[in-house]
Structure formats: structure tokens, C-alpha cells
Amino acid sequence: MQDRPWYARWPAGLPVSLDYPSVPVYKLLESSARKYPDREALVFPVYGTSMTYAELWEKARRFAAALSRLGVRRGDVVCIQLSNSPHYAIAYYGLMLAGAVFTPSHPMQSPLELRRQLVDSGAETLIVPDTFMPTVTGVRGQTRVKNVIVSGEQELVPPFTPVHVVSWGPRTYSFQQLLLGSPPKPPPLRLNPERDIAHLAYTGGTTGVSKGVVLTHKAVVTNTLQFAHWTAGGRPYLDRSGVLQIVDHPGPHPGGDWELPVTPGESTMLVAVPWSHAMGTVGYLNVPVYLGATIVCHPRFDAGAYL
């Protein structure tokens, strides 16, 4: 590779380029679940709950199986409109396992904004908090949405009671009930990471109407690895068993932790960024999951709680 003047001050242990494995997005979670099964993946202090990597992987597979039972197929668009929560992470990786296309929507969107995104993306399944159901009921008939999956706070705290959805009409389901009623065995799926779409993320709309940006599985994984190795050093390697490994990790950096602050399989990351933002999903869900970090998170930013 051509020499550059900034390489003279390049952090030790950080390659100047990476080779990016062609794998589906769910491989990020699967690999950490196989390497660090008993390590805490998610901690939500506000709910008093946590989840290991093995548990997150199992629930993601259950959710993928549930989506399949609802008729969601490879390439179908599913919109997640949730705040940061255990259900968000489960749903996201479940979508990736099902071969569905993920389109994130901020839970504070207006009915007009939600309707436009649902129509433009062609989403047929929507995952929302129960508090947002009045808005969903008002726009559902103007979209292609067939299935609505409802997550309630009561499903996130012990004893994890499913929300009641009967009053919201047909093809409306409790998130928790779907998990309880589905085995962790989604149907076999063959994806082409370089062609199959993983994300349909919408721009902020600061210069006009927001537009959907298409990202393949390869693009999302590549972006994740770029971000991750800038914070941890080393390089990615897909071993013969299909597990993403982090090799040539330099260990403690002589320049201090500020250079490469994350140690794979050991670090804890405090996440304040909403996963409903395209960068939030890649940089603050996929990156820590790939690195085997423990994610400490709140549904919304609360300075006092984080401090």
C-alpha cells in the first residue's frame, strides 16, 4: 500500500487496511455468542435486567422463527420503531437471521413521517411500543403493513408479561408472546452478503425529504469492522468454523487506553446513542456485539442515570 505521511503517527497495533470477510450481519452476534456465551451482552439498569450473548443469540433465533411463521421472507422490509431496549436488539438480529430488510424509524416520528416511511420502504411488518399504537392504528390502513408486533414495558421487566393486543385488531401480536411461542430454529437461509439488502435506512431529511439508503450485508459488516478495529486494533479473520475472530490484537497500548480503548471480550461500553439512528445500529449495537463488549444502555438519554 502506498505510504502516507500520517502513517508515521499511526497507532501501534492498528492496521492501515483490513480485509473484510463476506458474511451476513447476524454473523457478528453468532460469533460472539460462540466465543463469549456467558458474558453479559446487554445490561439495562432501568429494567433491572441483563442478557448474556448466548441468551441474545437464542432469542434472536426465536424471533427469526416467529417472523417466518408470520410470513416474513427474505427481502421483505420490516420497520423497527422502538427505543433502545432488549427487544430492539432481539428484533434486529432476528431480522438479519430471517433475511428481512431492516428499516429503522425513530419512536418520536409524527404520524405523517411514519406513514411516508412505511409507504416508501414498502414495509409489511412494523414493530412498535404499545404507547405508539394509537398512531399506528391511524396510519396502518394507508400502508402495506400486514403485521404489527407490539412491545410493552411490562414485557421488559419481570415477570415479562405479554401485552394484550386483541383490541388493536387482526394480525397484531405481542412481542413477548411470539418469543415464548417460537423455537430457536429459524428456517435455513441462504444469503449473498454482497447482493442481499440488510438495511434501508432513511437520511435525516435536513436538505429535503428523507431518502432511503440501501446497504447490503457486506456493506454493514464492513462499516462495523472499520469502526470496531479503529477502537480495538487487530484485524478480522473468519476461521474454518465460520466464527469471526479478532487476531493480532496488540493488548494494552503503550500510549495509553485512549489510543485503542476496547479490549475484545473484556470491555464495557456505555451507549447513549439511539439505535433507531442508522449510525446507532452500526456503531453502537453491531460494533460492541462484534467486540464481545457488555453494552450498558438506557431507553433514552438520562444524564443522571449515565453518570
Q: How is this fold's topology laid out?
A:
Elements: H1 27-35, E1 40-44, E2 49-52, H2 53-69, E3 77-80, H3 86-98, E4 101-104, H4 111-121, E5 125-129, H5 133-139, E6 147-151, E7 172-174, H6 175-180, E8 197-202, E9 212-216, H7 217-232, E10 235-238, E11 244-247, E12 268-271, H8 278-290, E13 294-297, H9 303-306
Parallel strand pairs: 1-13, 3-4, 3-5, 5-6, 6-7, 12-13
Antiparallel strand pairs: 1-2, 8-9, 10-11
Helix pairs in contact: 1-2, 1-8, 2-3, 4-5, 7-8
What can you see in these coordinates?
Helix 3 (86-98) links the parallel strand 3 and strand 4 (101-104). This protein has helices spanning 27-35, 53-69, 86-98, 111-121, 133-139, 175-180, 217-232, 278-290, 303-306; strands at residues 40-44, 49-52, 77-80, 101-104, 125-129, 147-151, 172-174, 197-202, 212-216, 235-238, 244-247, 268-271, 294-297. The protein has a single domain, classed as Rossmann fold (3-Layer(aba) Sandwich), CATH 3.40.50.12780. It is globular and about 65 Å long. The mean pLDDT is 94. With 307 residues, the protein is of the alpha/beta class. It is built from nine helices and 13 strands. The protein has a five-stranded parallel β-sheet. It starts with 26 loop residues before the first helix and ends with a helix.
